[in-house]
């Protein structure tokens, strides 16, 4: 799930990436917004979800994916969209279009 918060005085959005998977002990976020470098997500055991926040430029679209336990790729099932990638699967999309 994606939660977005926009700032009146900054041209960026704070996006909270939230992901759950029944077999996940470890989840990392990968995205083109950080050159596909791993961002470890924090596990909230009480809620059973992994979370992390990223500040992204507004009015853009970025591809991203989750890596579960260092070996299984998955998408955000509530992403803003999906697009085919070069590996025969799809990437999730997060859109930071500011809606006035």
Automatic annotation (TrEMBL):
One Pfam family recorded for the sequence: AMPK1_CBM
Limits of the AMP-activated protein kinase glycogen-binding domain: 15-94
InterPro entries: AMPK1_CBM (IPR032640), Ig-like_fold (IPR013783), Ig_E-set (IPR014756)
Gene3D superfamilies in UniProt: Immunoglobulins (2.60.40.10)
Protein name (Swiss-Prot/TrEMBL): AMP-activated protein kinase glycogen-binding domain-containing protein
Organism whose genome encodes this protein: Pseudoalteromonas haloplanktis (Alteromonas haloplanktis)
């Amino acid at each position: 799930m994606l939660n977005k918060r926009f700032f009146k005085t900054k041209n960026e959005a704070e996006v909270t990436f939230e992901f759950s998977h029944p077999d996940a002990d470890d989840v990392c976020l990968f995205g083109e917004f950080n050159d596909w470098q791993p961002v470890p997500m924090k596990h909230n055991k009480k809620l059973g979800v992994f979370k992390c926040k990223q500040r992204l430029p507004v009015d853009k679209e970025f591809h991203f994916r989750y890596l579960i336990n260092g070996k299984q790729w998955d998408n955000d099932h509530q992403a803003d969209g999906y697009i085919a990638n070069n590996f025969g699967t799809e990437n999730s999309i997060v859109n930071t279009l500011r809606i006035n």
